[in-house]
Hints:
Helices cover 39% and strands 29% of the residues. By secondary structure, the protein is of the alpha+beta class.
Amino acid sequence: MIRAAFFREGDRLVGFECQGHSGYAESGSDIVCAAVSALLIGTSNAVEGLVGVKPHVIQRDHAGYLKVTIPGPLTPDQARDCQLLIEAARLNIEDISKQYPDNVRVITKDRRSST
């Protein structure tokens, strides 16, 4: 199962962590894994490419692990744009988890409890 956790700091989402394999299909043919991976890697790329903020990324492909956190300090515009991108990713991953509840689980947690 893929477990995606989104980190909240106050009223803002400031990053996410995803681990595991969906188990929906064999590696290379797993549409659930591909969808989640594309959304989260795309979010990280958009934060850097569109917002101009280089996120801190830890990735272990063989373990199905990705952690992305947004460094500070940010301008108000950067904070707003990062928040929008991460919130969009969370909503999309939640939609996938509704379609594939046995394969994807999403939670949101306070950042202090995730470090």
